[in-house]
């Protein structure tokens, strides 16, 4: 997914200071774009916290009737230094990328695209999607592997029955199940469906920090309530997570050890310096601008770092202007 903000700020992402108990991050609404501006609710990055483990971006959207929103139409755009994670609750989206991967994003199925040194891709909802509802996430790649070749993984996790709940573990390990999908840093990603009245205790890695996004329902985490759309953060040190639901609820559970590196994130790029981001932007613009104008068909893009989405005739997304400020990396 592209970051659709018209004037995205330049962010130096560092780990926030630990807080006792559950830290609650409230979402902000961002228009995804398109003729009727489908809205997404963004909790990462936020003013409070930029990373949870290596998770550095979280958009939550829907349930959104396609008839009123126009659906998702994110045309080819670039990424560097990250991996994208697509997870749907309802709907269907077609993914195409410049590494030649074409795949459907469907409910309960993981699509993970590793951008590495550079990739471009599109995500467009299909006619089969009446309602779109899900999450789009990014994972920052560590400096040692952030320039790897692009890659793609698809995985359908089996449901794991728990006491009053069902888990689908799409990354990492939880509740006796382990995803086979390899990641560049240790990660946890799982969907939890809780019955009304469920009291759930999960054994987790105490070295991880954890994030819990409440999609729907009413849940308490460590006896503190979360409202739908809110992201709860727990610092390392918890070997167990306690969740209780007063009604049927759905939670996305994310985790990982503190990332340990500062990243510079702007628009769709993750890098390590202002100069790197400027260079990535210039390379993308050079691929899609011809004779001073945006190419009308993504298949006409010039070869370069980000490749060409050969099956997508829609026009690419040009990079927004850089902010009128120089970024200095902080740790």
TrEMBL record:
SUPFAM superfamilies recorded: RmlC-like cupins (SSF51182)
Biased composition (Pro residues): 313-323
CDD domains: cupin_pirin_N (cd02909)
Domain Pirin N-terminal: 41-139
InterPro entries the record matches: Pirin, Pirin_C_dom, Pirin_N_dom, RmlC-like_jellyroll, RmlC_Cupin_sf
Residues of the Pirin C-terminal domain: 191-286
Pfam families reported for this sequence: Pirin (PF02678), Pirin_C (PF05726)
Region (Disordered): 307-331
Family to which this protein belongs: Belongs to the pirin family.
The protein's name: Pirin family protein
Protein species of origin: Nocardioides dubius
């Amino acid at each position: 997914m592209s970051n659709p903000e018209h004037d995205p700020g330049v962010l130096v992402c560092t780990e926030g200071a630990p807080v006792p108990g559950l830290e609650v991050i409230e979402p902000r609404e961002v228009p995804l774009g398109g003729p009727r501006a489908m809205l997404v609710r963004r909790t990462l990055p936020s003013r409070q916290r930029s990373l949870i483990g290596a998770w550095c971006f979280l958009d939550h959207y829907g349930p959104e009737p396609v008839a009123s929103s126009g659906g998702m139409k994110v045309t080819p755009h670039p990424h560097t230094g990250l991996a994208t994670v697509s997870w749907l609750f309802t709907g269907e989206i077609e993914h195409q990328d410049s590494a030649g991967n074409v795949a459907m994003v469907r409910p309960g199925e993981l699509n993970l695209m590793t951008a590495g040194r550079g990739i471009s891709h599109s995500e467009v909802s299909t006619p089969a999607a009446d309602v779109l509802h899900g999450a789009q996430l990014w994972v920052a790649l560590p400096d040692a592997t952030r320039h790897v070749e692009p890659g793609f993984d698809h995985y359908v996790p089996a449901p794991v029955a728990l006491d009053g709940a069902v888990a689908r573990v799409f990354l990492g390990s939880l509740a006796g199940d382990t995803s086979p999908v390899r990641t560049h840093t240790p990660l946890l990603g799982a969907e939890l469906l809780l019955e009304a009245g469920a009291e759930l205790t999960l054994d987790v890695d105490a070295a991880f920090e954890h994030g819990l996004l409440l999609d729907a329902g009413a849940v308490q985490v460590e006896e503190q309530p979360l409202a739908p759309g809110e992201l709860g953060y727990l610092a390392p040190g918890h070997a167990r997570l306690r969740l209780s639901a007063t009604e049927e609820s759905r939670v996305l559970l994310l985790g990982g050890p503190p990332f340990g590196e500062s990243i510079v994130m702007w628009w769709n790029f993750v890098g390590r310096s202002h100069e790197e981001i400027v260079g990535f932007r210039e390379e993308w613009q050079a691929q899609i601008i011809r004779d001073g104008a945006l190419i009308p068909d993504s298949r006409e893009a010039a070869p370069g770092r980000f490749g060409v989405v050969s099956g997508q005739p829609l026009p690419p997304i040009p990079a927004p202007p850089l902010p009128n400020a120089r970024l200095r990396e902080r740790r």
